[in-house]
Amino acid sequence: MLGSQFGKNFRITTFGESHGKALGVVVDGMPAGLALVESTIQRDLDRRRPGTSPYATSRQEPDKAKLLSGVTKDGFTNGAPIAIVVENTDAKVADYKENERLFRPGHADFTYHRKYGLNPQPGGGRASGRETLARVAAGAVARLLLASTTRIQVLSAVRAIDKIVAQKSSFEFAEKDPLRFLDPDLAPKAHNLVKAAQEKGDSLGGVVEVQGLNVPAGWGEPVFAKMEALLGAAFFSIGAVRAVEFGAGTSLATLPGSQANDPIGPSGPMGDLHGGILGGISTGKPIVARLFVRPTPSISLRQDTVDLQGVPSKIVTHGRHDPTVAPRLAPVAEAMCLIVLADLYLERQANIALHPQIYRED
Predict the structure, then answer these.
(1) Which of 43, 157, 161, 271 could form a disulfide with 262 if both were Cys (CB 3.0 to 4.6 A apart)?
(2) 342 and 10 in contact (C-beta within 8 Å)?
(3) Does a structural domain hold residue 119?
(4) For residue 322, what pLDDT is reported?
């Protein structure tokens, strides 16, 4: 069974393949009475849509969201599962015909074959990055839920491309930049680096930063349900992510305790070295996570591989691919953060209703 479900209270089930008829998501747990129309979902889908920049795959997909269930004729959620579907309109199976019996390095072709007996699927099938559009659609629904009674905002952008690391943080600039790069001054260098890799038929990795703002203190649970554990699971479920850090992250390992602790004042921690989470529970400070993203595995350079019988061969990956996946992965990471926060929000609302003497109102 493919693990296509995520969440406990706000639950999502994604479906579809890269070169199938359609992809989509079923969202369960959404309360009734919230205004939800297709344009609400479309705004987020357009932020990860292919063919929108020189650094994105040239695949031309409108990615138009269709709401199939879960809303009334007047456009309000009715408490039932919300089904959203997006049709594939520009899939080119022929691009993968030549290599249909070869395993692509860096892809899930080999492991899917070992586990399910599947031959390499066009575009990666279920393992394709295109699956993530379903998560972004669900994230738009989660954003709507959080906006109904909270001031929570979730932002995402690219902190680094290869070895170029943003020193400034302008999410406003990043939203307009083709690479979604945070630093207006260093963005041209990042662009040139990606162009150079693209011309060589190679690809680059990067770092995506996600910030959760105005998350109240007290969200999350100790031990196995820690907020960073839930967020970590959400972020690591994105195919290209190979490491995640919160707050100061790995640099904390190089500091003495006297410098690694955030002093605490009357309003809580006075710093944010731990990314807004202590003991698995939110502190009220911004939640800051960075996702380390590998280079796009689909490149046009010749690579070593084997065929279905294990015979050594060479492969050149054809088709349309991003020279760096970080810019289009950012809205996906943002969506997964929104989904986790929506899940925790529903859990907290239930706890407050059942145990008002224990749980404080936000």
Answers:
(1) 271
(2) yes
(3) yes
(4) 87
In a domain, 362, yes or no: no
Do residues 296 and 203 make contact, with C-beta atoms less than 8 angstroms apart?
yes
Question: Within a domain: residue 361?
Answer: no
User: What residue type is 252 in one-letter code?
Assistant: L
Burial bucket for residue 50 (CB in 10 Å: 0-12, 13-18, 19+): buried
Residue 168 contacts by C-beta under 8 Å, 6 or more apart in sequence? Answer: 182, 183, 184, 185, 186
Cβ pair 286, 213 in contact under 8 A: yes
- Under DSSP, is residue 333 helix (H, G, I), strand (E, B) or coil? helix
154 with 337: CB under 8 angstroms? yes
Query: Do 276 and 286 touch, CB atoms closer than 8 A?
Result: yes
pLDDT digits (tens, 9 = 90+) for 167-180: 999 999 999 999 99
CB-based contacts of 79: which residues, under 8 Å, 6+ apart? 30, 31, 32
Average pLDDT of the chain?
Answer: 92
The answer to whether position 35 is within a domain reads yes
Task: Note down the domain range covering 229.
Answer: 5-354
Output the DSSP codes for 88-148: -----GGGGTTTTTBPPTTSSHHHHHHHH-PPPPGGGGGGSGGGHHHHHHHHHHHHHHHHH
Which CATH number do you get for residue 16? 3.60.150.10
How many domains are there within the chain? 1
* pLDDT tens digits, 268-310: 999 999 999 999 999 999 999 999 999 998 888 899 998 998 9
pLDDT band at 78 (very low <50, low <70, confident <90, very high): very high
- What's the CA gap between 267 and 278, in Å, rounded? 15
